[in-house]
Amino acid sequence: MTVNMLYAAALIDPLVQSNFHIVHSVRHAYPLHGHDFYEIFIVISGQCAHLVNGDTQLLKEGSMVFIRPDDTHSYDTLEGEDCRFLNVNFYKEVVEGAFDYIGHAAFAQALRSPRLPPVILLPEADMEALMRKSEQIQLFNSTDKQKARAMARSFLSDALTHFFLHFRNDGTQALPQWFDHLLAQLQRKENFSAGLPRLRELTDRSDGHLNRVFKQYLRMTPTAYLNHLRLGHAKNLLLTTQLPIVDIAYDAGFDNLSHFYHLFKDAYGIAPGKIRNWQ
After folding, report:
1. Which residues are in the HTH araC/xylS-type domain (predicted)?
2. Which residue from 15, 44, 153, 192 could staple onto 229, CB 3.0 to 4.6 Å apart?
3. How far is CA 96 from CA 1, 38, 55, in A?
4. What are residue 233's phi and psi, to 5 degrees?
5. Is 85 helix (H, G, I), strand (E, B) or coil?
6. Which of 108, 106, 89 is nearest to 98 (CA)?
7. pLDDT tier at 3, thresholds 50, 70, 90
8. Where are the beta strands (DSSP E) in 91-160?
9. In 10 A of CB 90, how many CB atoms?
10. Angle between helices 145-165 and 92-102 (to 10 degrees)
């Protein structure tokens, strides 16, 4: 069977270094193909069969798949049902640079090395957040290529973060079901912005037990994890809205503005007031 090859030089805008589009049916997708770039796609409705590397992955709404440059794949309906999916392509060097920035060789290897591409299931809120970001990228793509590129890298960072939270070292046990459920609940803005009191409402575990589990599986404290979610939310608002910084800080759950400034600069290496110009 002939395998078509797709090339970044022909398909991806060099100024943006990525492209985004919605595929409304598997009938409109490329037939069996390979490419010299990375691809992330998310099933946004329905279900489909993903034919990849001589095998089949059964995907449903919320499935996010990480395609590597050496993969060959195509799509088919599943049990007579079609699907729509968001398709995102990145220059190879952009993704490799993101791996270098994360600085976790085992995680990068866990995404690159399996015979079948990694798949995770996104909670609805996370899928909707990535969809909103992709829409913003499409808008900027026609008006401001630099902003489109910055937003595309932000999308990539968010997607890789979701994969990282599902990452398992060979010697690491899978997340306990209750903890996995708790983390999914904490992705909601109304939960992470409410801080530790809300976290305690969402589980019957003691503070000591929570501290041990967060450090065991995420290598951070509950407070650090909540701040990570809050800062990500604040960064997204800074990049996509003109809201005053003080309003963004409070919306993300920070009551102390100077503390927000300190944490933001530690996390991103730039002050909140400058990140809009940094795009």
Report:
1. 180-278
2. 192
3. 30, 9, 26
4. -65, -45
5. strand
6. 108
7. confident
8. 119-121
9. 25
10. 50
